[in-house]
Structures
1.
Amino acid sequence: MKRVDYIVYFIKLYNLVWKAAIPFLKKSSRLKKGFDKRVSAVHFERSDLWIHAASAGEAYLALEILKAIQPGKPLCVLLTATTDQGKEIIDRCATSCQVSSALKVNTEWCPFDMPEIIGRAVDKIRPSVMVLLETEIWPGLLYCLKQRDTKIFIVNGRLSPKSFKKFSKTAFIWSKLAPDRILATSEDDMKRFARIFKKSHVSLIPNIKFDALPQNNTLPAGTEVFLSTDSKLVVLASIRAEEERLVEKLLEKVSKNCPNACIAIFPRHMHRIGQWQKHLDRLGFNWTVKSRLRGVAGPGSVILWDVFGELKTAYAHADAAFVGGSLKPLGGQNFVEPAVFGVPTVTGPFTDDFQWVGPGIFGSGVVFKARNWRQAAAHIVQVLENGPPDKTDRKKTAVEYITKHQGGAGMAAEAVTRAVG
């Protein structure tokens, strides 16, 4: 009697779980957009390369890889996403990233990982190579790809200790679904991947996120001037709700010690504007929302920023910046962006989501990591009291640091293109 591999039984059970879940998923408002395409495969076309970018972060990585691809022959690429934001990004940017006339890029929603559905999608697409980004590891997709001899890459791979523990508990499954190649972003990630996927070829590349970091520190001509020439500007950026009380204390400390400083507050989420209005009234500040600012802001003013898309403008004029999401364990926000403008930049102690940037950025003096709000406030006060910062040298140091760590997208693109054949 022929022995049936246990992975077949697992996939059958996995399929039944998905089948039971689909009616409930259909009711989800989060999955409403594109739902019909998430449960179908009829709309797909044959593609040489399939890159799956689940959400916004992965979408930007996928686009960096696309920009680096230089095919020697016509290449059809399918980009898929799972979230609304990820889909919007690949739709908006895919065309602009086609630097080669030989590159044709299509974008679609990624089907659910139900083996029946994803299997039909793989049959329609028939990719030579599949690229999964970071930790987008789905058993149904991997199984169907391996059944059809598609080469599977995990690119910019990262596997946190927490995720490693979860994968370790089901290692008997993943041993049958190992990708062909894993391009990891750190030595620790390499070791963790190698223990889960023992049959995969695991190697190291620079984090592609460095390729996506901004290096352009100039603003277009005609950019609005909102600050008087005799004002020093402090930007409190990407402030999360959970840390607002601590940022209030930082705000009071900076304002007390530097009463002539203009302070701009950028909540991470716009729905917190109303709450910040209450905070500022309670603290006794005279403030205005940016949308009502007439003329320029003078010394000692507080601007509550309620206009989208102007954080870079504020950074370009800033004498100091604090980047939030970092006074409590919330992962942190992008502290590299103000540094590229040459702004003395401060974060709190919690920057886990940006560990990939590396400790060198703090050692360079471009970004200062404070232990708490008091140290953050004291550093900002010191910067302001020392006079206008030398932005030229800071810009140069930040850009050199980024450039030194770039190249991952090119390495990934070369490996993938070679595998496509």
Note: The two ends are 40 Å apart (CA to CA).
2.
Amino acid sequence: MKIVFLQNKGKSYGGVWQVNKLVGEALIKDGYDVSIISIRENHNDNQLEHDDRLHVETLNTIDDWETYTYSEIIDELKKMHLKKAFCKLKYRLHNNRTLKKDTKKLELYLDEFQPDYIISSHYQLLDMIPKKYLSKTYHEHHTDFNDALQKANWKTLLKYDKKVKYIWLCKSTMEKAIEHGLHNNYYIYNAVRFHNTKENDVVKHKKLVTVARICDQKRIDKMVNIANKLFEDSNYKDWILEIYGDGPREKDVKALIKSSQIKMMGRTDSVKDVFMSASINLITSDYEGFCLTIVEGYECGVPVVSLNFGEPTEEVIENNVSGFIAKDEDDYLIKLKKLMNDSKLLMEMSKKCKKFNSKFQINNIVKEWEKLFK
């Protein structure tokens, strides 16, 4: 059986690639022929390792995926920035032309490969899939339902209702999709990327960590504010917070740091090593489709303290068992201190979150995919 995962950008180390790669490699082991096809390249030096049997290809290695919207061009005209408006319009029109060529390239690839199923990872790609392949298409929406309800997303999803099948990242999101009138809905959790058999001494480390893109969605500014208050208390002078990641809000977050116990570590490719040296995983996201870093922490026996990030929260965090779900920043600080102060509770949660994580192992997740295909 032949499976194609479609994504918008190649050489991107984000969650979409991690999920597609992990599921793709597991399917290959079960005898499937799997490809990951990106429409355009993410122009960086990322070298993404994968099973050699997994076919990875980018159709357009020259043009960027991002372009200017017509509303951005109109805004420049309103400001009388005529030259900027002209340059952005020219870039947008070029993008429209090249996207038509990329759509043709995709059709030629699909005609040659003849897939049994297509997994679309971004809603924009649905417009690029030829009509004759839509009945074989699953659209996997990698964010929460509020994101799906954004005007462009929702308009596209409605356009393909009953033509494709929808995969959501948790049961709650699927139920919202059904409530809003979409048909052919399924849900499959994301799988943890690695397996760990070593025991983690979470009490010894005295280290708080987060692994996240530093952007508005992750609200690392809230995390830093909480940590600043925490480290004002000398009772926690032996603890540190390490923030792993990069992104557009990096400078803003650095400016908020008041304590030398808060350290910006940059992006990491060794998530397992980070969590094996950690005690507690911190999450302050506004929304998440699933939140891979929580289950990655669990795999290393690291419980989580998190703000509520929407539909998946209570499916990914077993409150008071695998971690704590906080109502607001004040409640967050209370729950965090409780876990830091009680080494017995920290060890108990470490063992329980590791046990809870068994449901997110790839061997269980790939079975759910195979159920859909069969």
Note: The domain at 202-359 is CATH 3.40.50.2000 (Rossmann fold).
3.
Amino acid sequence: MQKFNYARNALRYIINRIKIEEIYIPYYLCDVIRHAIFAENCKPIFYHIDDNFMPAQEFPINSFILYPNYFGICDKNVENLVNIYPKLIVDNAHAFYAKPCGFASFNSERKFRNVKDGAYLFLSNENSNFEPDLFRRKCFDFYHNKLKQTNLLNIDIPKTSIPFCYPYLAFDIKEADNLVKELKAKGLTIYRYWNRLPESYNEYKFYSRLVPIPLL
């Protein structure tokens, strides 16, 4: 295990150390990750994801692939992909307590705890000793029990998963905006992920209608 200030720098280290020349990355992704890839003179090859956050295509078996554990609810997707692609790199920035897996994976403590920085890089199947935040999981279950009937996401996660937030996919933009206003009125800070995507992309629904509810 190695420690970095930010998750993006953990990825830059992997690319530099392994001399990765090109890597598959999703369109639905934080800008700083793309910038980190460009900074290492690595070529990104973009891919789409489906409604369950799975890649919407197959990849060459030995290619390097970056897959984000979106909102910390994609442990099953990660497990499936790891069993197929030997050079899968898992972005666990939204899944700090997830077990290391794949060719490499990195976690971000600063998204879960009140620390200035703290990203951890694991190569292969190194062990981590992070104690799970059970209160966060209880908050997630509370929101899921309350909202699952109207949430358009099909959320099915293991009992051991500790998500970053509760992602609620609204029926339309108006419903999403109204929910954001309601949550902000209660004192919650709501971020929308990530930058605008073309409306023709399947991922546009996540950009425009997904509300990540903080687990406090």
Note: Helices lie at 7-18, 31-39, 75-82, 134-147, 173-185, 204-209.
